[in-house]
Amino acid sequence: MNLSVWKAITGTVSQNNAGTAFGGTLTEADGVIAFGSRGYLHTTTEFDPELVGGLEINGEFTFISGDDFFSVLTRTDAVPLTSYGEATSGIQFVMSAAGDNINIAARNGDHTISNFIVEGSIDFLTNVPYLFTVIDDGLGGLSMVVTDKDNPVNTISATAEVTADIGAKNLVAFYNRENGRNSTLQEIEIKSLTSQVEAEIIDIA
Question: What is the distance between the alpha carbons of residues 92 and 61, in angstroms, rounded to a whole number?
Fold first, then answer.
């Protein structure tokens, strides 16, 4: 893993409902990151959507556990908080195998999210690759699209608006659900929506 552009957070960052600690894990092999029990991967560089002309984040993920969640965060400090190890701050784009749904939410009130609208529906299956595009346009617009890589009609999208922003950090982060769940991530791309020069294209390796 290229430690000049990525930082991993592992160890005891999450707990299950009974209060038993589970160590978050994160490993890389051949450009594929394996997440376990809320392991974190975040950028070492901040990407402020307002300063770079909006952010577009693309990637491919696979649920290994049938009740996992996978999250992409913008405007985050990537600091685990609470017994479940969720991030202290940020805008969270969530994909849930447990409910076959997606969500756009704020972590702990440092942003205000409104006008959340979902279009379509999706079946999340284990060991099936899904492509995602997350957009934080820097002007208040938020969106995400998730599509079955091998079955493009199996797709879902959502939009929302951020109407308040008091967050202090602008890292991009990824993590999965706590308590022994597992997912993988690969082919990450982070770029500007408006600039002729991409903000960053990041190889995991």
Answer: 16
